[in-house]
Amino acid sequence: MSYLKFERALMINLQESLQKEIIRTNRSGAYSCSTIVDCNTRKYHGLLVVPVPELDDDNHVLLSSFDCSVIQHGAAFNLGLHKYQGNTFSPNGHKYIREFDCSGIPTTIYRVGGVVLKRETLFQHYEDRILIRYTLEDAHSATTLQFRPFLAFRSVRQFTHENGTASRDYEEVPNGIRTRMYDGYPFLYMQFSKKADFVFQPDWYRGIEYPKEQERGYSSNEDLYVPGYFSIPIKKGESIVFAASTSESKPRTLKTLFEEEKSERTPRDNFLHCLVNAAHQFHVHDKNGERYLVAGYPWFKCRARDTFLSLPGLTLSIDEVDYFEDAMKTAIRQLRQFMEGKEQTGLIKEMDQPDVPLWALRAVQQYAHKMGDKACAERFYKLVTDVISYIAANRHPNLELTEEGLLKTDGTKKAVTWMNSTSNGLPVVPRTGYIVEFNALWYNDLCFAAHLAGELGDAARQTEWQAMADKCGEAFVKTFVNPYGYLYDYVDGDDRCLLVRPNMIFPVAFDYSPLTNEQKRSILDMCTRELLTPKGLRTLSPKSTGYNPMYVGPQAQRDLAYHQGTAWPWLEGFYIEACLKLYKRSRLSFVQRQMIGFEDEMFNHCIGTLPELFDGNPPFCGRGAISFAANVAGILRAVELIETFKD
Length: 647
Description:
By secondary structure, this protein is α+β, with helices and mostly antiparallel strands. It contains 17 helices and 35 strands. It has a 9-stranded antiparallel sheet with strand order 1-9-10-11-12-19-16-15-14. A hairpin with a 7-residue loop joins strand 4 (46-51) and strand 5.
């Protein structure tokens, strides 16, 4: 039985099926995203969504959807589905769906009377080209397929509406046409593997509505342009491949191309393979050959903290060392540009965040675990020395190494930690002064650097860094350990934040920690009692002031809840690591049971991956971005650790 398979009863129940989304990427920044019934419910949805750097740094929806109709005996049965204003759905093509299977490539089976049509979709790697294969599996009379492309040609952050500026011009190309609605955009090529008749019949489909945007408090409707329709006869057993692309395709090669691309896909036939497949969706290779990680889909870009935080789990945990090395090379180049005060050239944003170099060294530490100290030193020792020297010399504009040996930062007017939501231009969670995870990272990084120096025989640096670590560790305990058995979240003068937040889990999980085992156990117990959910650690305890666990409503309302009780899976990755380090195999069955909540998510929200966050209260609904790199990375790391302790 297929792992990600959904039967007819679920597919025709729009209350269920419209909540399940699917995303495919081409590993070069473009993506294809919709619901499993091909009804777009977000402005970010589209069959072909690509970056257009000539216009801006956003993605742009070129081809919103592609409706197929089955024609028999002069009667048309439209398999498409759109939501219009007034809660109207048309043309209700979902009622013909018999099953949807995503264990391999997304495959939908339609049945219209005696006609059985299979639709398979994939995104060509490294090309802005979506491929759809239609196979007529059964038919008892002559059958024709008609296809209507719904065009948008707009940023994912905007809407398009009927206007007189949009170009209606098109040109014929082999087995199809090319067109573009506005100057500055690339041409959209729509071609088939066999000759297709195109009938020019321009029209605007008005009032298409996106309910997910309504839920988020945004405008939610637009008009889409349909230039006409393609018509192709098809015989029983025959397959036709459609390609939508920003460059011309070769029709004779489309069937072979489809098979080649299909053979390269990671099957999603179990929990681990779903996570591996999801990990690959975050890969981005630019035209210069550099490799990045997107922080999440559909609206996140490449971000520095997310890159260094996620990269080990998305690569090393699944034995993809080459990608780790290549992506680190790209990220380190930009990090060095920042440290040297040079203009940054690359896709990674937010390199100025003060904890970025700290997470970079922890990523290097994970590489050392995988490849050994010698291999790590050969590749990254200079980075280690440069980052520590940079921080120790107080060259970072918002990171100060104090006489006590701790790192201090100013987060009063700008969010500087991963808890970065803002309201009215100011941080919702104004963490400032001595931040607990910054200093846990600093202590861990110093100890790791000293260890690496010792392995290389660099005695001077080993002594210097270990002394810095000892000083930091002593101050850490004095500063952050409180009388109640856990850690202050931050300390700023006399302001000692007693709110129970998950950031105290980091010094329990890291390889090097200034805490005693008794202190670690106390912290872990606090996290278990007040923060642990089936979907991750809460960002705030329900017993703490300001607890707001439901990430719903308009943007301003969601900003206030973003880090005030919502649950994040990547945090639980560190929680599980802490459990196994402290209690070894005695906690193995417990952490294995924790995986059940995440495996359930493979069938919900965006299937086969993990969303950005969850409500902190039951039923723990998935919210935010539909696929989030740090969460996939954290759970992949947890799976790897569980397997290690099982052996």
